[in-house]
Amino acid sequence: MLRIARLKRELEMLSTEPPPGVTCWQTEDNMNELRAQIVGGSETPYEGGIFLLEIKIPERYPLEPPNIHFITPIYHPNIDNCGRICHDALKLPPKGAWKPSLNISTVLTSIQLLMAEPNPDDPLMADISSEFKYNKQLFLEKARNGPLSMQVTTRVPWKTKTRLKIGNLLLARGRLSVHIIQKKLQRKHACR
């Protein structure tokens, strides 16, 4: 009961007072699965990009951190090709920094900050980390062009109540072709 009450409160807070550049919503009537979008920060290689994330809430939340991964492809030293994120706030101690006092809003804000300030000393992608450290211009070019060059048209089946908000676009019902939802949806099951 405490978990559901807390999730309702957090979702209410995210809908009324979202952090800048972050939105989050539940999928259908299931509070265990959420979606979020992070707008790429200004003066970063991801500026102007809209990045879709999947959030799975564990049964023991808030004692355990949410499981968050990127659906939209992103070229980043702390995010792998399957969208998994290497971030202390998503891991339990002693290796991680998750605390029950953190919430989904703070974690999404910290992921947005990680996008702007990669941590090459704790990489998930060693080759990208090396590029970030030793050839930053090449990294910036690949990060800027990566998500755009990986875009594909994806057929996404939605049930009637499902809504997907991307930027100012709200998609609902039926089967729609969407250019903004990228290749990651096709590889989603291969990474699990």
UniProtKB/TrEMBL annotation:
<dbReference type="GO" id="GO:0061631">
    <property type="term" value="F:ubiquitin conjugating enzyme activity"/>
</dbReference>
<keyword id="KW-0067">ATP-binding</keyword>
<dbReference type="InterPro" id="IPR016135">
    <property type="entry name" value="UBQ-conjugating_enzyme/RWD"/>
</dbReference>
<protein>
    <recommendedName>
        <fullName>Ubiquitin-conjugating enzyme E2 T</fullName>
        <ecNumber>2.3.2.23</ecNumber>
    </recommendedName>
</protein>
<keyword id="KW-0547">Nucleotide-binding</keyword>
<keyword id="KW-0833">Ubl conjugation pathway</keyword>
<dbReference type="GO" id="GO:0005524">
    <property type="term" value="F:ATP binding"/>
</dbReference>
<feature type="domain" description="UBC core">
    <location>
        <begin position="2"/>
        <end position="152"/>
    </location>
</feature>
<keyword id="KW-0808">Transferase</keyword>
<dbReference type="Pfam" id="PF00179">
    <property type="entry name" value="UQ_con"/>
</dbReference>
<dbReference type="InterPro" id="IPR050113">
    <property type="entry name" value="Ub_conjugating_enzyme"/>
</dbReference>
<dbReference type="InterPro" id="IPR000608">
    <property type="entry name" value="UBC"/>
</dbReference>
